[in-house]
Amino acid sequence: MPPQSESLRGIGFLVSALVLFSVMDVLIKLLSADYGTFQIVFFRSALALLPIGVLVMRSGGLMAIRTARPGGHVLRSLIGTAALLCFFYSYKYMPLADVYAIHFAGPLFLTALSGPMLGEPVGWRRWSAVGVGFIGVVVMIQPGAGVFSPIALIPLVGAVFYAFAMIFVRKLSRTETNAAIVFYFTLTGLGVGFIGMLPDWKTPDLAGLALLVSVGLLGGCAQILMTQAFRSAPAATLAPFEYTAMIWAVLFGYLVFADLPTAPIVTGALIVSASGLYILHRETRRPPRPVTDATAKATMP
């Protein structure tokens, strides 16, 4: 297939994944009124193992998940699960669009951490973009303002966990398959969710069970589509389309919850998005790294 057609396929996979993730997040926000965050993470992970199991089988079966670095998988998976818990918990108290906007700070933290943790050079232009991006974060969370809510710090902490998780994904990807990274992450989420939900377990009714099952299946299918997207097209081609997630968050948030993002959220999100796109532009102007952003994105939490 011609490269242009492959890129279009990759964009289609990515947008489809983002739509499924957004629908999943709507269901999580609905469920959070009655069920604890750990219980939601448990079902999200348990049911996601079904489509991810298909990915593992198509990638070579048990050979695809063999690893000589179990400790690395555990650390990456625990940090990624912590990010999930932060974001899922935030959905209960914040509009979807607000959480998404703050989540966009993750790549800024990733850029800042890639120097000390991966030894990757980060020039003054990228550092400047990171600084501008953090101004956008401050605009969104409005510290010291009368409307500031401490809950806004929870997705910000989630964005930090996300960045650390992606750092470890880059390290693992030097020797591990995407299937292995996604499988052990999902398995860890299953274990953490099971332990955490025991004190507050609530037996779901039929409607709740249907939503919980849907969350897991949607998350697993979206993760596979995301992986396929970054196999089909370069990260530089796909990255700008990741910001379309904000469109779905605003649309679904308004249709289902009558939520609209505030002016500070919109302003801050635009600043953060512009900073992220500039960092992406600088990334494309230097020689490729042995481990690409595509690998990291394909195994996102």
TrEMBL record:
Keyword list, A-Z: Membrane, Transmembrane, Transmembrane helix
Keyword Iron carried by entry: no
Membrane disposition: Multi-pass membrane protein
Major place of residence: membrane
A Pfam family of this chain: EamA
Family label: Belongs to the drug/metabolite transporter (DMT) superfamily. 10 TMS drug/metabolite exporter (DME) (TC 2.A.7.3) family.
Name of the protein in question: EamA domain-containing protein
Organism: Skermanella aerolata
